Amino acid sequence: MRQLLDHDYPGNVRELEHVIEGAMNFIDDEDVCLRQEHLPNYFAVVADRSESVTTSQTFHDYMYEQERQYLQRALQEHHGNISQTAKSIGMSRQTLQYRIKKLNIKEDT
Q1: What are 44-102's pLDDT values in tens digits?
Q2: Which of 18, 46, 67, 106 is disulfide-compatible with 90, CB 3.0–4.6 A?
Q3: Residue spans per domain, the chain
């Protein structure tokens, strides 16, 4: 809860909506509340302030890898179904397909 309240939300309410909607897609049937593991990766970076940020990779490379992992996880959750994945993360199907191609994500994910 603290992470959700402390986050800046540069995307405003729409970003909060997508964070919660995306997290809900990763909740197992036995879970009764959102946990750290359900939130996007950038929340984990903020949560662990004791872990120092390494500058061994560029910001672009870091963000590329984070987005790639996020989309792979979402695709796996929806068994590779592009339409369901796009809807769950608040993205158009065409945009998701573009991102999959740009991030070199194998479609058999």
Answers
A1: 655 444 444 556 678 888 888 889 999 999 999 899 999 999 999 999 999 999 999 99
A2: 18
A3: 1-52, 54-109
